[in-house]
Specification:
CATH superfamily: GAF domain
Number of strands: 3
Order of helices and strands: HHHEHEEH
CATH class: Alpha Beta
Structural class: alpha+beta
CATH topology: Beta-Lactamase
Number of helices: 5
Largest sheet: 3 strands, antiparallel
Shape: globular
């Protein structure tokens, strides 16, 4: 039954996207499948995010995309934009990546040579890429919490810490 739903969503996606070539749609579905398999196999997060960016860049074309984690500060994002401008790249698209609960996990930045806006079809592709990135980030966070049993998810220590004497006489 799950496979039937997946095939229905493939057909629906194929109807929504431009049919300039069946190869492009087929490539996108293969790329998504590969990324989902990487997520389930617990491939390191940077490699998965790179796969997402590569697939997105290939689908839209003439594009460079970057996914940053929330741990990076806004100064790094501004510095990346300044460096991109030095190479003649313009911001094409910028958006936050959020978990199902609304927590910000990271951001997606896209740059291109000619300054332009994203088309509705490109926005759909970008949305799918952001969704895949959110899934990968959430799975990575959950996997990290499962493997480290000494530190609880909230980061607090259990019990009390040993107090050392101030002086020994």
């Amino acid at each position: 039954m799950g496979e039937h739903r997946f095939r229905q969503s493939e057909r629906r996606l194929a109807m929504m996207l431009p049919h300039d070539s069946e190869g492009r749609i087929h490539y996108m579905l293969e790329a998504e499948d590969k990324i989902l398999r990487s997520i389930s196999a617990r491939v390191p997060l940077p490699k998965i995010l790179n796969e997402i960016c590569t697939a997105l860049d290939c689908q839209i074309g003439n594009m460079v995309s970057l996914i940053s984690l929330t741990e990076g500060d806004m100064a790094n994002t501004a510095e990346t934009a300044r460096h991109a401008a030095l190479f003649g790249l313009h911001i094409f698209f910028s958006a936050g990546i959020f978990s199902a609960g609304g927590e910000e996990l990271g951001s997606l930045e896209m740059y291109c040579c000619p300054a332009r806006d994203a088309s509705s079809n490109e926005l759909q592709l970008i949305g799918r890429a952001a969704c895949l990135a959110a899934i990968a980030m959430e799975c990575d966070t959950k996997a990290g919490n499962e493997t480290n049993h000494r530190i609880p998810a909230d980061g607090s220590a259990r019990g009390s810490a040993v107090k050392w004497p101030i002086s020994q006489n």
